[in-house]
Design brief:
Elements: E1 6-10, H1 34-46, E2 51-54, H2 65-68, H3 81-91, E3 96-102, H4 108-122, E4 126-131, H5 150-168, E5 196-197, E6 202-203, E7 218-221, H6 226-235, E8 238-239, H7 246-262, E9 271-272, E10 275-280, H8 284-295, H9 300-311, H10 335-348, H11 352-362, E11 366-370, H12 372-384, E12 390-393, H13 400-415, H14 428-432, H15 445-461
Parallel strand pairs: 1-2, 1-12, 2-3, 3-4, 4-7, 7-8, 8-9, 10-11, 10-12
Antiparallel strand pairs: 5-6
Helix pairs in contact: 3-4, 4-5, 5-15, 6-7, 9-11, 12-13
Length: 462
Amino acid sequence: MTKLMALGAFLYPTGHHAAAWRHPQAQADAGINFKHYAEVAQAAEAAKFDMLFLADSAGARGEDWGALARFSTHYVAQFEPLTLLGALAAVTERIGLVATASTTYNEPYTLARKFASIDHISGGRAGWNLVTSGNEGEAYNFGRDHHPPHDERYRRATEFLAVTEGLWDSWEDDAFVRDKDSGVFFDPDKVYSLDHRGEYFGVRGPLNIPRSPQGWPVLVQAGSSEAGKALAGASAEVVFTAQQTLADAQAFYRDVKARAVAAGRSPDDVKIMPGIFPVVGRTEAEAQAKFEELQNLIHPDVALSILEHRLGIPLRHLPLDGPLPTDIPVTNAAQSRQVLLLELAQREGLSILQLGLRVAGARGHWQVIGTPEQIVDKMEERFLNEGADGFNVMPPYLPGGLTDFIELVLPELRRRGLFRTDYEGRTLREHLGLKRPARHHKHTKAIDAAAEHTAAKTSAAA
């Protein structure tokens, strides 16, 4: 059977470009406009996308609200994503529903229950994009004075995921007999308390919802640092990442697949789906004109603010037409994205402002501008040469950018036999060709790994 490309539709409210909300065809209030989300979701489902993907941050970015009111660096004011997924589940039937939730600013029991609920409501279409939070300002919304260090966030994430998996396995699949004649609602021999106590969490369990249709919602992970790749290799089923070149994409792909094998998994147990920011036109000139229209809507202050956020340093005191400084410290936020942008600036000789304008468009993701044939040529190259198992499509603006991709790019992908013409399954796991996880009793490997890490840390301290 010919391997097919997986495709996600990344639904940032007005589109992925920083100035998307200013586009004449964009829905400016998209973040709180459910009709907008429903129409875009239904369009993606009609086009047979594997999944919808919702990003999120548990806090508004920025400090200078006077400036941001006019020149917003990030789209502000949008629905909480799990709430939105529940609503979208009711107006779609087949497409997968993936939302971002942070392990740094949530608790395992609450999150396990929410995602299991969405998996039941949707008939097995839920997915969790696990992040550790790259927005340092989130800390202030949860009673903290600072964002936890990068490595600590990933230690917490490892234990968080292990506890969540254990909670999802609280019940055997056939535990709830609901026999009215005998009065037996569930079989007590088929329910298990987790009884977990680790470095960060103490959770007894069991979860108060049956095992979900997919066993577990699909596990998506979006970190590409060393810690992120370690977590991805051990546990992730889909990896959302960013690479600029084929060589970098291949290196990341092979690295994560090898880590999965080292963890006792099959390479096919994890799907690598980098982001792609496509600007498509019927001609090259038309595509370039569409891109320039968006770029002309970016205020330089916005470009600079986004770049400062991504790099984790102030830049306004430097000449904007000059190069980046060479002594940039490692950020405590998204470390892999910082490295990617530094390499991009050096490879292409970009000034600070030029890099800022580039980031404001694709925000560090792979930017492809051209005709349908040109865009598919590049996607196919990565797909067939161990650079990707599919892509998370990040439309420049909505709904028009997604419509362009559906009407112009998908027919070319299908002509080459690279993308489905219809769904064959009903769950997100079936769309992606992922196995339904077997139920573990009480503890998963990840919990044992977290316990070993805690023991080693305690021993070292002693």
